[in-house]
Specification:
By secondary structure, this protein is of the alpha/beta class. It has 14 helices and 19 strands.
Length: 491
């Protein structure tokens, strides 16, 4: 058996005005050909798929094409989109005769002038491999399912957990491929698109309405005729013409069953729409006072509006401003992504006391905050610490800057956005020495979980804010809940 395999991922936030470039992908590594297998074996969707096929005892010659991942951000540039399209086309044209294609994408990537990047990539694949080759598509469960994705793949599988387990999703894709190639199953899909978007505060699958919805999917899969049920609460800051939540049911040749279960899944999600909109975040000042009063650290402060893992720019200074204004003495750790500030601090040098504006330079949501601090360290930003599906990252030149009780890690690029403790340790900082740590994520607290005492969601504005009604939507289909009051998920 000869199976082509590729993995490309980026999650777009349309409220971040900064375009994502090819350099943003290169910061996490772009691998081609045999290097894909060497770098990705045992990790991510790519590694999960390869391992599942091997575990099934299927003799396979893998034809790896490309692996690339870019941190969530603004729309990708035309140059970046065309680069990946050209790699896909060239790789498949030179692949020779294939028995299947495994394609691992994010599902919520948009580019300049193109809403559905993954649908366009699938169309290129189909144009080369033809209509009959088995194509299994694995997606992040924050994907925006589109007509092209469903029409151009034989089966779609998605994450079963938030926080994500990319390896598990790749393993599901590999197992599906094996069963198709052995003639054990003939997948058919039914899907429903919901007129629904919500913020991310209720996105964890371990509790609340999301757990109820995902538990239903797992219960449906106990029927041997059901191959996979994928729930896709689209990431909330993608402003595209086909935007909205979705559910996809894959059965073994039983279309009627797939259609019935897709309706049941959509109905359940819709019935909990108000619960999905429940906000747990609290005002900035209240959050900081609560963290300061905690008897034990490290207290995680989730800067929801500036969730870099959700595509925000990382230039929010709202938590820093409040800490300084309130006279907080507890030590706080926080990241900032601002190449301009890095340049000024590098010019000043290690040990220099500097007064300068920080934050508010890139996203358009914040105003610069003038502070005085001391440059503790300047270092290159290559960090050999895994983040999501990549083995390392390069966040560019990085400065450790102490401002009062706060230690800022200011970088040129996003890297891990300070959401991974080992990223601080790479620059000589031990996060456990701090009372509180600001994370630029709305839900990925798992990396800090071993050392944190509690998580406080902070209701901050920004490209990832929970107040989805307050964002300048232009392209999502209307009416859509909660932007509009509607009685049915069908609109």
């Amino acid at each position: 058996m000869r199976i082509a395999i590729l993995q490309i991922g980026q999650e777009t936030n349309d409220f971040n005005p900064n375009s994502a470039t090819l350099a943003d992908f290169a910061g996490y590594g772009i691998y081609e050909g045999a290097e894909c297998l060497a770098k990705m074996r045992g990790t991510g969707q790519f590694g999960g798929c390869v391992d599942a096929v091997a575990a099934a005892g299927l003799a396979v010659e893998w034809i790896p094409i490309i692996v690339a991942w870019g941190m969530a951000g603004g729309r990708i540039t035309t140059d970046a989109r065309l680069f990946f399209e050209e790699k896909i086309v060239a790789g498949l044209r030179h692949a020779g005769k294939l028995d299947a294609l495994a394609i691992h994408l994010h599902g919520a990537c948009a580019a300049e002038g193109v809403d559905d990047v993954e649908g366009a990539q699938l169309a290129l694949c189909r144009a080369i491999v033809g209509p009959d080759l088995p194509v299994v598509l694995s997606l992040d469960h924050h994907a925006n399912i589109t007509r092209q994705m469903v029409a151009l793949s034989n089966a779609i599988v998605g994450h079963r957990h938030q926080p994500h387990d990319q390896y598990d999703t790749g393993r599901l894709a590999g197992q599906m491929l094996v069963r198709i190639l052995r003639g054990e199953v003939k997948p058919v899909m039914a899907w429903r698109k919901l007129r629904l978007i919500t913020h991310q505060e209720q996105y964890l699958t371990s509790r609340g309405p999301m757990k109820i919805w995902f538990d239903q999917a797992r219960a449906m899969e106990t029927d041997p005729r059901v191959l996979h049920v994928g729930n896709y609460p689209m990431q909330p800051w993608l402003d595209v013409a086909e935007g909205g939540w979705a559910t996809v049911v894959v059965t073994d040749g039983d279309r009627a069953l797939a259609e019935r279960l897709a309706d049941e899944s959509a109905d359940l999600a819709w019935s909990m729409r108000a619960e999905f909109m429940k906000m747990d975040s609290i005002p900035v000042d209240d959050a900081i006072r609560q963290a300061d009063a905690a008897t034990k650290g490290v207290v995680v402060l989730s800067d929801t509006g500036d969730t870099v893992f959700g595509g925000a720019a990382g230039d929010s200074n709202l938590v820093l401003e409040a800490i300084l204004r309130l006279g907080i003495q507890s030590r706080a750790l926080m990241p900032l992504i601002e190449p301009q500030t890095v340049a000024q601090l590098v010019a000043a040098g290690v040990g220099a006391q500097v007064t300068l504006p920080v934050g508010g330079s890139t996203s358009g949501f914040f105003q610069p905050l003038t502070v005085t601090g001391r440059v503790r360290k300047i270092a290159p930003g290559k960090v050999n610490v895994p983040v999501f599906q990549q083995p390392s990252f390069d966040q560019g030149q990085t400065v450790i800057f102490d401002v009062g009780p706060a230690t800022l890690m200011i970088s040129e690029r996003s890297g891990s956005a300070g959401n991974v403790p080992d990223a601080y340790r790479a620059f000589g900082i031990e996060p456990k020495d701090y009372k509180m740590a600001v994370l630029k994520t709305a839900s990925n607290f798992q990396f800090f979980a071993p050392i944190s005492s509690e998580v406080i969601r902070v209701n901050t504005r920004g490209p990832g804010q929970s107040d989805v009604r307050g964002l300048p939507w232009r392209r999502v289909p209307r009416p859509i809940y909660p932007l509009d009051e509607i009685a049915s998920w069908r609109g």
